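Entry — protein

Goal — fold tokens:
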Amino acid sequence: MDPVTLTTDRLVLRTVDARHTDSVYAAAQDPDIQRWTTIPTPYRREHARSFTQEVAPEGWACDTMYTWGVFLPEGEDLVGMLSITMRSPGTAEIGYWGTKEHRGNGYLTEATRSASHWAFDRAGVDRLEWRAEVGNHPSRAVAERAGFTIEGTLRSAIINKGVRRDCWLASLLPSDLSLPSTAPYTPAPPPTT
């Protein structure tokens, strides 16, 4: 698939390329991004170069990972990154990080809502999952504000910096946003007492 640009009231989500290598590199020096994401630590310029010039474009070309830089509309000011990674037919996982100077403005929530709508409407996704290491409360807050339902904690489900860690799991379905699914969905009946 060719890269897609998404716009919201306050943001532009568009693919990253060589122009954004320095911005991605600078943002990834933030200790919080390094702590809570699985990016390499230390994060070097060659990591940013590979991400912007190989990983992101190849994901779009192969329909395996759709990556957007999140920007303010008036320029090249990087607000964050967001990716939707296909996991199995109809199921994808969303991940994101925000730059330190733009946190607390609701930008990632807005970007997550926009990308989620796109995934359901254009990428054939019927279940969008969010996972984060237990304790990453800012990421969880974004997911919850974007409409995700927390489903629980998975033990030993994430490997971060060579260590297995527990993670929270949440999901968003098209029906949560009043959108149609590509396949019928019948929820389980509520438990009886």
